[in-house]
Design goal:
Structural class: mainly alpha
Mean pLDDT: 85
Order of helices and strands: HHHHHH
Number of strands: 0
Number of helices: 6
Radius of gyration: 17 Å
Largest sheet: none
Strand content: under 5%
Low-confidence stretches: 89-103
Length: 151
């Protein structure tokens, strides 16, 4: 993987992360979504799948580990939002039912979830800044230096 590919991958990670945040907002607004659109677990979202697989090639680069901490915090907040909207249960059948019934969420719960969503947005901004900083570090490296990190 060369520098341009790494940078393109990081930019794609930001894009997919933003989509996930948008899906979380849509869920709060009552838009029914498939459970794959807004996974609770940090390792199941598209960004998390990248981070814990191909992204691990960057783990020796300064700033990479901090992204994991921020990402886990973001998913913790999302889990809190999900609990506000749908309760604590995480059974698949419940999941499927609740996503279909999301329009029936009480207004008070939706307001509380939206307050948490603002926290989630700030956490998202932090993650994006961290990824952009990682991109700058990689962009400043020579190909040989980057290859040493990726080895």
């Amino acid at each position: 993987m060369d520098k341009n590919e790494v940078i393109a991958t990081l930019r794609n990670a930001v894009r997919t992360h933003k989509q996930w945040v948008g899906n979380a907002h849509a869920l709060i607004e009552g838009v029914p979504l498939d459970k794959e659109k807004v996974p609770l677990n940090a390792t199941e979202c598209e960004f998390g799948r990248w981070y814990y697989s191909d992204g691990q090639k960057l783990k020796k680069i300064s700033g990479f580990k901090e992204i994991e901490i921020s990402h886990n915090n973001l998913h913790k907040t999302y889990t809190e939002i999900f609990a506000i909207l749908f309760g604590e249960s995480r059974e698949p059948s419940f999941f499927q039912k609740m996503f279909g019934l999301s329009r029936n969420v009480a207004a008070a719960n939706r307001d509380e979830a939206m307050e948490k969503y603002h926290v989630l947005e700030k956490q998202s901004e932090t993650i994006i800044k961290q990824i952009e900083q990682l991109e700058k570090v990689i962009a400043a490296m020579g190909e040989t230096q980057l290859t040493m990190y990726l080895a």
